[in-house]
Write a structure and sequence with these properties.
Layout lengths: L6 E3 L3 H7 L5 H9 L2 E11 L9 E3 L9 E3 L1 H4 L9 E10 L8 H14 L8 E14 L5 H14 L2 E3 L1 H5 L5 H19 L1
Parallel strand pairs: 1-7
Antiparallel strand pairs: 2-5, 2-6, 3-4, 4-5
Length: about 190
Amino acid sequence: VESYDWLISSMPLPDIVSCLIYPPPPIKKATEKLRWTKGYMVSIGFNKIINTKGLWNYIYDEEILASRIYFPHLKTPKNVPSGKSSLQAEIYFSNKSKLDKTEREILDNTVEAVIKTGICNREDIEFSDIRFEEYANIIFNSDIYESRKVIIDYLNSIGIRTIGRFGKWDYLWSDQAFMDGYREIGEIYDTIK
């Protein structure tokens, strides 16, 4: 048990509500209505510069698990060692479903897709890696606006201010999430000084 005057949390709303000892039934119900995607991020490092036309590419193929790939070396060459390149593939699924593949199967499917689509040859791949994220993206279903308002209003009423993409349960870019936290801290500071 911890005491506080104000608590600022960037935790995802479902996680912070689960930390409360006795959340009121309407808050629990609103939390159950929130939807999001979970995701696997597959990173592939290449032993040479891979030429590609776009920073982001979307994949529309039911046999390929990844829905989007990103080339960090195109953002800045400082993202990779000199003379090398990389990509990150994103595989998403709903928090209400399970992916019927193992991490190895997901990784293998992604590597084979990158080769099959002509992005690279097998010998161009220096390494591959897979990571899981419990919270990838927020799903904007019909319940989102009322549910997040009910939860955030309740948390504010008990001195918890939420910040960031998953604290505000909104589609915020990294810089927007940072500025959101900055504003919340400023507002609290202004009320206590």
